[in-house]
Amino acid sequence: MIMGTNSTTNLSPSTKIALAFLMTLLAFAITLGNAVVILAFVVDKNLRHRSNYFFLNLAISDFFVGAISIPLYIPYVLFEWKFGSQICAFWLIVDYLLCTASVYNIVLISYDRYLSVSNAVSYRAKKTGIWKIVALMGAVWVLAFIVHGPLILALESWKEEKMQCEPGFLSKWYILILTLAFEFLVPVISVVYFNMYIYWSLWKRGSIIRCPSHTALPSPVSSSSCGNSLICGLFSRTSLPEPEETEVSLHSGKQRRKSSLFFSLRTQMSHSITASKTCSLSHSDSVALHQREHLELLRAKKLAKSLAVLLGVFAICWAPYSLFTFVLSIYPPDKRPKSYWLDITFWLQWFNSFVNPFLYPLCHKRFQKAFLKIFCMKKQAMLSQNRSTSS
Fold first, then answer.
1. Can you give the pLDDT at residue 6?
2. Structural domains in the chain plus CATH codes
3. What tens digit of pLDDT does each residue of 262-317 get?
4. What would the 3-class secondary structure string for 161-226 be?
5. Cα gap 315→306, rounded to integer Å
6. Dist. CA 185–CA 191, nearest whole Å
7. In the chain, is it the N or the C terminus that has fewer CB atoms within a 10 Å radius of its CB?
């Protein structure tokens, strides 16, 4: 990342101490918030769903942003701490790895939502094994390392004469643009495509559910046929004999016809009752199916909105720095302008790691229940401890 170390060298010691306190507070909040998310997966087994594991992977990357990246950056940028070549390379690899992994985790979450909408039946029926989920989570970290890791290791990062820790590929504009494309542009395009497809599919499903011709309700013809089945059956089964029958056969079969008439009446009555029950059951089943589809559509819309909020915050936090990086890549490395705005956009990326843990409970009820469960457990532990001390 492009560091504006010269922009903080002219600050007064009191200002530097205040900034160090605020940065430390932000790092602590990022670490604590994402640690609660990780703890929620340990406490609440209901969270252990395929899509939620990808949120866990995002929380892990954000956790290490607050635990490693920011604590190493504060003394370097404010107090001109001399990194050295080894610590500089380590910090750059970790920081780029964590930031890129956060981006790719958001892409993975969007792709998983895309699969759940495009192949809803197979997605629910198929039980994804834990090892396949872990493989997808690991693939995110491997791809994130490939984007920047080899370049940082191959090119010199620590500049002794300027005491600056910057990746060596920043001096080559074409490599900078290429890494920017894999780090931001391609993920953003993928995320936009997945979410546009999700909203288009939900709109299409909503229009089908609202259309009366697709509700699969029983037609009037079928209901009338169920109602008239008794009459039709009676006339078909109790038809008059042919005129050619003799008087002897009429008298001899009189008793037999009476018994067959009563038998057909009894049989047809049972058939009509069964048919009416079947018609009423099919009607209630179709209404229940319609209501179930409507509820599933509402649930899918809520998930899509929560995902849109997460992605919107991600775009707001990442787009300014990527734009600044693209503009500064046009200038030669020695003539790039230094500005506080660059530092603000740089910190805005890390601020995204602070916001994400608050977006989980706001958008997902399962996370709300898990967080409440954690806080209730802490409250009960504190009450039991107070009772033991008082006794």
1. 47
2. 5-213+310-390 (1.20.1070.10)
3. 555 556 655 555 555 555 556 566 666 666 666 766 767 777 777 778 788 888 98
4. CCCEECCHHHHCHHHHHHHHHHHHHHHHHHHHHHHHHHHHHHHHHHHHHHCHHHCCCCCHHHHHHH
5. 14
6. 10
7. C
Cα–Cα distance for residue pair 147/100, rounded to 1 Å: 8
Tokens of 140: 């995110």
What radius of gyration, in Å, describes the C-alpha atoms of the chain?
35
Higher confidence at residue 37 or residue 157?
A: 37
The CB density around residue 343, as the number of other CB atoms within 10 Å, is 17
Total residue length of the chain: 391
Residue that the structure tokens 């509700």 belong to = 215
CB atoms within 10 A of CB 134: 12
Q: Which long-range contacts (CB under 8 A, 24 or more apart) does 136-145 make?
A: 136/54, 136/108, 137/53, 137/54, 137/56, 137/57, 140/57, 140/101, 140/104, 140/105, 140/108, 141/97, 141/101, 143/100, 143/104, 144/96, 144/97, 144/100, 144/101, 144/103, 144/104, 145/93, 145/97
